[in-house]
Amino acid sequence: MRRLALAALCAASAARAGVSVPPEARGNALFDQANAAYLSGDTSRAVAGYEALLEEGLVSPELETNLGAAYLRQGKRGLAALHLERSLFLDPSDDDARADLLEVRRGNVDKLEGEVEDGGAEAVSRVLAPLPGRPAAVAVVALWTLGWGLLTANFLRPRAALGTSAAACFILAGAAALVTAGSAAAHRLTLRRAVVVAQAAPAREGPSDRAASHFEVHEGTALRIEDEEHGFRRVKLANGLTGWVPSAAVEPVVPAGWSNQHRL
Amino acid sequence: MSRRIGSALAALLVASAVLAAEEVQVSARADADEVALDGTLNLQITATVSSKGDQAELTLPDLKDFDVVSRSQSEQVAFTFLNGAPTFRRTTVTTVKLAPRREGQLAIEPARVTYKGRTYTTQPISIRALPPGQTPAPKARAQATPPPPLPDPFTEDGALDPFQDVHPQSRDLVLRASVDRERPFVGEQVTYSLYLLARVNVSGIDKLQLPRLDGFWSEEIEAPQQLVGEARIIDGVPYRAFLLRKRALFPLRAGKVQVEPAEVEVMTGFGMLFSRSSTRRSSQPVALDVQPLPEARKPAGFDAGNVGSWTLTASVDPVAVAVGQPVTFKVVAQGRGNVRNLALPKLGQIPGLRSYDATSNDKESIEQGQVTGTRTIEQLLVPERTGAIEIPSLSMDVFDPAQKTYREVRTDPIRLEVHAAPANASVGSQVPAQNLLAAGGLRPIRLRMTRASVEPPPWTRGWFWPLLAVGPVGVALVAGAGRLRRLLARDPAEERVKKARSAARARLRGAEALLEEQRRGSGSAADFHAEVARALTGYLADKQGIAAAGLTREELGRALLDRGHPPGTVRAVLGVLDECDRARFAPGGSDLPSQEARLERAGRLLGELEKVRRSA
Which of B50, B47, B55, B48 is nearest to B85 (CA)? Predict the structure, then answer.
């Protein structure tokens, strides 16, 4: 349906323009239209426009932020939280998305009590996420390889400068490796993060509708996916509460298309 | 005089008596002898019976050559005293309107009237059916007295009378198509009307098929749901004119255009009582000569769709706004003409204003038979700086077909006052309140989009860890290769040392071969001794590093002693070398047994020299 809406919008735009429109310009035009709808208060049209862009495979932190804001205006706190989390995954330095996410969480139904069992994984993840993991990883490879190259040269033709340079490369590579490790840890934690998108979902003792339920989770609550089986996901809340909820009730922050890695 | 009156009364009484005796009189007549195939004629059957209560029963003849268009009946009862007794005469007149089915000589068979068990018949009537459109001879048709002319409701000022050239002649049903102007401009409205002219009772229409209006943009003006007739006198004959359709046509291109005929099926007759029949009718084609827009004083870049009488206005709401807050810019074109083909001016880029795509909304209406419309274009503008921003005037050229001139319509420029946004204000607080935004704090959305990469991080790639191993592995390979190279490298001197003994043994075997040749009588003793000497000196050179050829015997002896060889062995070596020299340069001084002994001693000396080497 959304693809049809996008196709109709694009066809109308193209017909009006009378020329073929490149996909990027088309995407920007649709983004502008969705923004205009949002600003004029037509959040349904705005959401349809943003979702159509996502269906097209577009990945953008601004798109996720705006979609989260539009969902929040529609009162869909779960979906709002999900897309704001995704925005932060794509751009951890986006303060606006972080502020909007806090706004969403203030209205969450679920209030967690008890000690934080996951060792503040989310806090650690939040701290480490802004680290430039990708360039640091590339730097690790480059500096490490260069260090070993200089060391080899020093073995073949010993010179003081070569040895000093090799040592500097190894030190810098070590620093970059620390950054990379931090970023990798944050990434690993984020891969398991999820948000409750259903208004309410019973958390059961097993992956079955007949299993007993001792508590319920509500939309917007962040949790961690531990396992998946028979249409249920085993989730763990930050305070250690664990249960099986229907798969459709929770959505991972990092969708399958964004990462080829196994989540669990 | 009284005699005359008396005779007349007597005759009347006699006649009355005769009529009374003839209880039933039936007759039939047609109002024309000839009729066109697309015309009708009236068949009138009169039955008169002398009865008060009983009625005659009429059976129409088999009208296989005619269609019954309509049927009506009237009845009259006369009451007279005849010879002092009351007499009733009931006269029933049945009128049947007939349309011929084929050309040629047709016959209307006798009608039958049954009264009190007896059957009476009328006489047959012969009718000649003419081809469609032909006019029957005047005498063949009974002329009705035309009623006084009625006011003509169809003729309007400046428009063509749709029936001015209509001559239906004998036709009772005529489908008439007309246009209000025959030489319109491109884009000018032409009103196409379709009328049904009838002088018979029309109970309904069916299957109205309008022509294909290729080359026109058309709009419905009037499509009556009920047939409402207007009186019209055409060629002195009263007709009822029914408007079936009225459409506005806007020619899309210049040139001669023909609107094809329309078709309709007309049902005639009266409701349920009498049989209804249907007749198909076609209108005439309508020719138009569409004029191109005049080239004289035509503005450059004129859009051919802007034809009509139009006005243009623009507005902004609100006119004072905080920076970042949207305003709605609206351009409205209003007037008479084809609004759907109208091309409105577009707002260009204005510094300080971010504009979004415009939305267009058209509204059409019909006013006094003319298509009027309003096109509204709304555009969202977001000011990006404070201060006054002027939205410039927009203009549009239009061609007014009524005035046959081009003119320019334009909007007034609009001044937009943009002030700074109040502190801590958010976009969310400006929109209509919604349930979950009461707390506020929602940040403004992003207006520009960047693409992000969702490639897996490098450390999850297959190449990452092997690439890290490249450095250490490379260094290990370099080190290993050096060591291997050293291991595999061969020193010629060393090689010679290793192979010294085997080389010396090989030479001694050669000397033994030479000795064997001497035994057969062909060898040379000098060669034998030279080979033995080479075996020893070669061994000493390779193994001991002593170039014996360049040394005196004393120097050779000292060198061997310096390397730790026993003095006895040294003397024996020197002795063998001396014997060899003597035997080589003093032929005949050596027999075979002494050569064998020398060969054996040389072999033993090599072993003794080797022992010292090993122990060293």
Answer: B50
